């Protein structure tokens, strides 16, 4: 592809101060997820913790479960799992219905299963598996910011996108449970980031290795990761071929795309072949819908055109179903951001004149990814599946980046102070407000009846210290970005970027 000039490389650098601030925001979100992981009672069915824990137990015994494998009944080693199992009235919910997923997350959990057994401390497995998910969700938040920077090359916009995703209820609260979503979304986001880097900055061995590694992780964590692998491989092939349409260029595009897709395919294909043999399709969707006797929710088109479903789905990303009083904040965020995007469109400026950063290739990839994810989800819901808010997590890079650009577009037209100072201060202030909102949602959640009590022997004081440390990280992050708004600091940042 194209070679980077010195000016391109300078433009592509994310200032270290802003990167540190983005990491601190991700740590803030991690602290809230960790509190949930350390204290919330075991959620056997509502969060699929029972079958997910059962999956890891089976792997620890050297067995790969199926969706009909019974959850463990060893009450001595796994008392929380067995206690939840006893509350299930029907037989299907006594099985490991999550066994349709590939085993990466559960393999990562094996050290905690072994430690819990060695120490005779069952809670170690539960908390450990939860924390893996929490770390994955926090990494996703950071990756959202890095993707936003690749799309816009505006550090303040990237920081704001990180703050927007950190305020997302699903990423924070769902991240504190035994689930493979955090690892899966982080891996898919990493592959999208690597693919955008190849398309915009050029092909290199390191970037291709990153994409292949992320592809293996994405396809090994959850079935939708396979769709991301195929899409990114196709995007790499197309971008490289359009850059050089010679025979050599076509071969280069084919090899790069082959590495990006074949490596994950060779590493994970066996599992999806196994699913086809056992259930008739790679994801076991039809077998699971039949197992739980789910009825169709309408046709594909009916679900796709149900506006109320999509509005509700979007709102639930930032406000839980029972926390309706917080929905006004979500709606206001969307309205302001969409207004900003409309203003940006009507002004008709390019990325060079506004600095807004519309790098079409990256946006096209995220847009195509969103269509693939949504098309898959529409089919799942139409067939009888639940419209779970967790299923929209892969869209966070596109959603958060779009919302951040829309908000910054409003700031850009306010004639107060220098543009750089104005944008950095606005990004800091909005992120602070979103952080307060996120903490209010968190406080509501842990104090509500749906929290369902506490883990046995959980230490609330230790968990509160973790949250306090996370709050400090969030405040420091905001201060770092606000400090970057100082003219002298901005000039120093620009000089360092050019060296």
TrEMBL record:
<dbReference type="Pfam" id="PF02366">
    <property type="entry name" value="PMT"/>
</dbReference>
<keyword id="KW-1003">Cell membrane</keyword>
<feature type="transmembrane region" description="Helical">
    <location>
        <begin position="362"/>
        <end position="385"/>
    </location>
</feature>
<feature type="transmembrane region" description="Helical">
    <location>
        <begin position="423"/>
        <end position="445"/>
    </location>
</feature>
<protein>
    <recommendedName>
        <fullName>ArnT-like N-terminal domain-containing protein</fullName>
    </recommendedName>
</protein>
<dbReference type="GO" id="GO:0009103">
    <property type="term" value="P:lipopolysaccharide biosynthetic process"/>
</dbReference>
<feature type="transmembrane region" description="Helical">
    <location>
        <begin position="326"/>
        <end position="346"/>
    </location>
</feature>
<keyword id="KW-0808">Transferase</keyword>
<feature type="transmembrane region" description="Helical">
    <location>
        <begin position="391"/>
        <end position="411"/>
    </location>
</feature>
<keyword id="KW-0472">Membrane</keyword>
<keyword id="KW-0812">Transmembrane</keyword>
<dbReference type="GO" id="GO:0000030">
    <property type="term" value="F:mannosyltransferase activity"/>
</dbReference>
<feature type="transmembrane region" description="Helical">
    <location>
        <begin position="253"/>
        <end position="273"/>
    </location>
</feature>
<keyword id="KW-0328">Glycosyltransferase</keyword>
<dbReference type="InterPro" id="IPR050297">
    <property type="entry name" value="LipidA_mod_glycosyltrf_83"/>
</dbReference>
<feature type="transmembrane region" description="Helical">
    <location>
        <begin position="18"/>
        <end position="38"/>
    </location>
</feature>
<dbReference type="GO" id="GO:0016763">
    <property type="term" value="F:pentosyltransferase activity"/>
</dbReference>
<dbReference type="InterPro" id="IPR003342">
    <property type="entry name" value="ArnT-like_N"/>
</dbReference>
<dbReference type="GO" id="GO:0005886">
    <property type="term" value="C:plasma membrane"/>
</dbReference>
<feature type="transmembrane region" description="Helical">
    <location>
        <begin position="211"/>
        <end position="241"/>
    </location>
</feature>
<feature type="transmembrane region" description="Helical">
    <location>
        <begin position="465"/>
        <end position="485"/>
    </location>
</feature>
<feature type="domain" description="ArnT-like N-terminal">
    <location>
        <begin position="123"/>
        <end position="240"/>
    </location>
</feature>
<dbReference type="GO" id="GO:0006493">
    <property type="term" value="P:protein O-linked glycosylation"/>
</dbReference>
<feature type="transmembrane region" description="Helical">
    <location>
        <begin position="155"/>
        <end position="175"/>
    </location>
</feature>
<feature type="transmembrane region" description="Helical">
    <location>
        <begin position="131"/>
        <end position="149"/>
    </location>
</feature>
<keyword id="KW-1133">Transmembrane helix</keyword>
């Amino acid at each position: 592809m194209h070679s980077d000039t010195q000016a391109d490389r300078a433009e592509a650098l994310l200032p270290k101060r802003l990167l540190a601030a983005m990491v601190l925001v991700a740590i803030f979100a991690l602290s809230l997820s960790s509190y949930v992981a350390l204290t919330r009672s075991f959620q056997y069915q509502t969060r699929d913790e029972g079958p997910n824990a059962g999956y890891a137990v089976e792997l620890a015994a050297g067995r790969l479960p199926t969706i009909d494998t019974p959850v463990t009944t060893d009450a001595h080693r796994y008392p929380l799992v067995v206690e939840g199992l006893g509350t299930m009235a029907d037989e299907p919910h006594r099985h490991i219905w999550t066994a349709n997923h590939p085993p990466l997350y559960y393999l990562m959990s094996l050290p905690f299963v072994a430690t819990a057994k060695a120490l005779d401390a069952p809670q170690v497995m539960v908390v450990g598996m939860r924390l893996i998910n929490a770390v994955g969700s926090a990494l996703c938040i950071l990756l959202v910011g890095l993707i936003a920077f690749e799309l816009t090359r505006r550090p303040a916009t990237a920081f704001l996108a990180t703050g927007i995703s950190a305020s997302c209820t699903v990423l924070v609260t769902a991240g504190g449970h035994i689930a493979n979503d955090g690892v899966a979304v982080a891996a898919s986001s990493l592959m999208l980031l690597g693919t955008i880097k190849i398309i915009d900055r050029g092909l290199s061995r390191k970037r291709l290795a990153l994409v292949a590694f992320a592809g293996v992780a994405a396809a090994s964590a959850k079935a939708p990761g396979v769709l991301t692998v195929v899409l990114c491989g196709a995007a790499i092939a197309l971008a490289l071929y359009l850059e050089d349409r010679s025979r050599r260029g076509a071969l280069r595009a084919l090899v790069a795309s082959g590495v990006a897709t074949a490596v994950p395919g060779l590493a994970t294909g066996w599992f999806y072949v196994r699913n086809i043999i056992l259930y008739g399709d790679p994801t076991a969707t039809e077998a699971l819908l039949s197992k739980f006797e789910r009825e169709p929710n309408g046709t594909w088109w009916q679900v796709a055109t149900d506006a109320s479903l999509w509005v509700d789905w979007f709102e639930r990303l930032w406000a839980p179903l029972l926390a309706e009083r917080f929905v006004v904040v979500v709606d206001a965020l969307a309205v302001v951001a969409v207004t900003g995007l409309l203003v940006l469109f009507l002004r008709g400026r390019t990325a060079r004149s506004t600095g807004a950063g519309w790098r079409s290739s990256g946006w096209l990839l995220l847009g195509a990814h969103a269509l693939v994810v949504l098309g898959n989800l529409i089919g799942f819901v139409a067939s009888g599946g639940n419209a779970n808010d967790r299923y929209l997590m892969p869209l966070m890079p596109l959603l958060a980046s779009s919302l951040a650009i829309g908000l910054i577009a409003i700031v850009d037209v306010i004639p107060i102070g220098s543009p750089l100072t104005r944008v950095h201060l606005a990004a800091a202030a909005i992120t602070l407000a979103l952080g307060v909102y996120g903490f209010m949602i968190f406080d509501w959640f842990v104090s509500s009846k749906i929290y369902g009590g506490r883990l046995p022997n959980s230490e609330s004081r230790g968990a509160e210290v973790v949250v306090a440390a996370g709050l400090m990280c969030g405040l420091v992050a905001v201060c770092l970005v606000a400090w970057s708004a100082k003219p002298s600091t901005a000039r120093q940042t620009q000089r360092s970027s050019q060296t």
